[in-house]
Design goal:
The protein is α/β, with parallel strands linked by helices and 364 residues long. The protein is built from 15 helices and ten strands.
Length: 364
């Protein structure tokens, strides 16, 4: 809420009491509403969702596919009304899809990064192209979703059929990923490797706590901020939605976790040109997409230098980085994401997505 609209001291305290009473007696303040979507394709546990908003027709030929990271539910891209990247893209006229890998079960411990890069993502792209008749797609990848998008484009080159690639908080130079690269070295110790082998899938409690360890002070500051903003219903609803999402981290397929830690974080193989997927070498020089990189200057998970490195490492003509004062989650779902990330992203995509001619005449 804007400072000029901030209510007085007495009114704020009254609103705090009202919000506390409602949360205690009726439950969360956040509305349980999402952007309308349909499942248009299923493969193993993965589903492909298509978002659609009435009265917002598709205005661009090139469809958009959101590529989420592992270990989290992709609801972060459709968090709540007014704070949904997927809904915003629909409002801007993009034919918007999202890949959901599902929740891994015990038998999914054998799934590797190879499966996502060489199968799940390319198959989703092919399905969208078949449905829409488009010659290519735009990908939007956050965190590991962007890393896997880089990897797939570096594997398939023009055959990836990716016209535009937007990465958000996605590191490429893992030598600049302190302290995560140090933690990765510890995870590779023999005793730790045996433990992860016995564990199967990595449980969400472990990945969630590791996530918190990268920015432990935020646990306290977020709680203090809740007390400070308890009078602001919309702020509290946002806090609830974000906290609920963090509490619902999902298992990380065991083999994919070990491969990501070993080959990406610890060995920095993607940037160094030493990575192989399904026996094929990954070469960032094969990438043909236009690329937009969002760098969070307050990102404790993906340090700015590690993300910004894409501009120097990927030799395409149309590539640029935009730095914004946001953290890792704030980049996709924070209160300032719409203004600082979503809108610049939509403007950039619009210039590269072939506007459609729309007949504005209607029958009498």
């Amino acid at each position: 809420m804007a400072e000029k609209n901030r209510p007085g001291f007495l009114k704020r305290n009254a609103m705090r009491l009202l919000n506390a009473f409602e949360r205690t007696t009726l439950g969360p303040l956040r509305p349980n509403v999402s952007t309308p979507s349909d499942v248009v394709w299923m493969w193993e546990r993965s589903t492909l969702l298509r978002f659609e908003l009435p009265r917002h027709p598709v205005r661009y030929r090139i469809p958009v596919i959101i590529i989420p990271p592992l270990m989290v539910k992709p609801i972060i891209f459709d968090l709540r009304p007014g704070h949904s990247m997927a809904g915003f893209l629909c409002e801007q006229g993009f034919d918007t899809y999202m890949l959901d890998y599902g929740v891994p079960e015990a038998e999914d411990r054998v799934i590797r990064v190879d499966d996502y890069v060489a199968d799940f993502i390319p198959n989703a792209i092919q399905r969208v192209m078949e449905m829409t008749g488009a010659p290519a797609v735009s990908l939007i990848g956050w965190s590991m979703g962007g890393i896997m998008s880089y990897t797939m484009c570096g594997m398939l080159g023009e055959e990836a059929h990716v016209r535009n690639l937007v990465t958000i908080g996605s590191p490429l130079d893992f030598s600049k990923m302190f302290p995560m690269n140090i933690m990765a070295q510890m995870i590779r110790l023999p005793g730790a490797t045996v433990m992860f082998d016995l564990m199967g899938n990595v449980p969400p409690t472990l990945t969630r706590n590791g996530f918190h360890l990268l920015a432990p002070q935020k646990l306290l500051t977020r709680r203090l901020a809740l007390i400070q903003h308890y009078w602001d219903r919309d702020w509290v609803a946002g806090y609830e939605a974000m906290s609920n999402w963090v509490d619902e981290f999902i298992p990380y397929p065991g083999e994919a976790f070990k491969q990501f830690v070993r080959d990406f974080v610890s060995s920095d193989k993607l940037r160094r040109g030493a990575l192989t997927i399904n026996g094929q070498e990954i070469d960032l020089h094969r990438i043909r997409a236009n690329i937009l990189v969002f760098v969070g200057t307050k990102d404790d998970v993906a340090p700015p230098a590690s993300v910004r490195a894409a501009v120097d490492e990927i030799p395409v003509d149309d590539i640029r980085a935009i730095e914004v004062p946001l953290g890792h989650i704030g980049l996709v779902a924070g209160s300032a994401a719409r203004e600082l990330v979503w809108q610049p992203m939509a403007d950039w995509l619009a210039e590269r997505s072939e506007p459609l001619r729309i007949d504005t005449t209607t029958a009498a």
